[in-house]
């Protein structure tokens, strides 16, 4: 048996969690925000942000040793995998024999993984880069509304009694009244889910799961639902909303497991599209994240 690649290693870890009833990207809000790259004090994005514990500061063994710290002996085998990408360019198909200066190129990416440890709990002699802020006046609902206002070409929304859904053909979202939810957090988590769906419209990111009508239970449907769930989780983390509630969790887990076991790139593609959806909503761009 050959050496496992990054896709297989990470997918197996996701499958293990799902089989134990754990949805990795659904996490309770702990008031500490998203996980960060300790060395540069910047938040992880996409897949890595969902797989690491919120509020943690993570560094590689090399970074820890260079900073004068050390990993606790009992924590050595409990490192966390993070994925990063090596970006490169290749000539477009059919242009292999054309001189570089005349050819057109496309971007390609190859995934790598690194192991990191949380510097506050798994290490010694490491100094946190977080600044302690006391008496912070923070209202998650206000933060959610502020975030939603950043969506420049947000679809039309209406209040209805027939559930929460997005209709690509008419580019509008239907949402029940807030009072019909168990909490405001559940309302905004659901709204974020539908807003992420809307970023796939043909006039926005033109995502296949939205532009092509996906039948219930199909691969496209399962992937688009995962994109929306992951995107919603990212937005909830940004505004401080607990997003652990999910209807029909067992059904969703079963569907995702089937797709993960059949496609080792499924989780990577879905998490990347979820991050793109979030970035589109917030009108932000990021440099390609390389090594930690």
Structural class: alpha+beta
Q: Uncertain regions: pLDDT < 50 for 5+ in a row?
A: 288-292
Helix-strand pattern: HEEHEHEEEEHEEEHHHHH
The overall average pLDDT, rounded, is: 86
Percent of residues in beta strands?
A: 15-25%
Count of distinct strands: 10
Into which percent range does the helicity of residues fall?
25-40%
Give the strand order, joined by hyphens, for the main sheet: 2-1-3-6-5
Categorize the overall geometry. Answer: globular
Radius of gyration: 20 Å
**Whole-number tally of structural domains:** 1
Largest sheet: 5 strands, mixed
* N-to-C CA distance: 30 Å
- DSSP helix count? 9
Summarize the structure in words.
- This protein has one domain.
- Strands 2-1-3-6-5 form a five-stranded mixed β-sheet.
- Residues 288-292 have low confidence and may be disordered.
- The chain is built from nine helices and ten strands.
- It is α+β, with helices and mostly antiparallel strands and 292 residues long.
Descriptors:
single chain, 17% strand, 5-stranded mixed beta sheet, 10 strands, 37% helix, 3-stranded mixed beta sheet, alpha+beta
In short:
By secondary structure, the protein is of the alpha+beta class. It is 37% helix and 17% strand. The strands form 3 sheets. Strands 2-1-3-6-5 form a 5-stranded mixed β-sheet. A 3-stranded mixed β-sheet has the order 8-10-9, covered by helices on one side. A two-stranded antiparallel sheet has the order 4-7.
């Amino acid at each position: 048996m050959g050496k496992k690649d990054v896709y297989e290693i990470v997918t197996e870890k996701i499958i293990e969690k799902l089989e134990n009833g754990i949805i990795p990207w659904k996490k309770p809000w702990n008031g500490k925000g998203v996980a960060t790259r300790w060395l540069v004090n910047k938040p992880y994005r996409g897949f890595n942000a969902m797989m690491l514990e919120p509020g943690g500061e993570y560094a590689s063994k090399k970074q820890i040793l260079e900073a004068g710290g050390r990993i606790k002996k009992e924590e050595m085998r409990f490192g966390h995998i993070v994925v990063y990408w090596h970006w490169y360019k290749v000539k477009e198909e059919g242009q292999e024999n054309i001189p570089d200066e005349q050819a057109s190129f496309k971007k390609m990416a190859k995934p790598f993984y690194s192991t990191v440890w949380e510097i506050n709990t798994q290490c010694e002699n490491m100094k946190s880069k977080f600044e302690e802020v006391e008496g912070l006046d923070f209202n998650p609902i206000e933060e959610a509304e502020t975030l939603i206002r950043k969506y420049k070409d947000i679809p039309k929304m209406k209040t209805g009694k027939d559930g929460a859904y997005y209709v690509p053909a008419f580019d509008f979202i239907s949402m029940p009244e807030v009072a019909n939810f168990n909490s405001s957090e559940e309302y905004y988590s659901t709204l974020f889910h539908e807003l992420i769906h809307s970023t796939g419209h043909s006039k926005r990111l033109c995502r296949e799961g939205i532009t092509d009508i996906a039948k219930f239970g199909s691969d496209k449907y399962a992937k688009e639902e995962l994109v929306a769930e992951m995107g919603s989780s990212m937005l909830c983390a940004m505004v401080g909303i607990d997003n652990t509630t999910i209807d029909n969790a067992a059904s969703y887990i079963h569907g995702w497991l089937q797709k993960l076991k059949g496609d080792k790139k499924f989780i990577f593609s879905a998490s990347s599209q979820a991050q793109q959806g979030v970035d589109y909503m917030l009108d932000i761009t990021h440099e390609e994240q390389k090594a930690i």
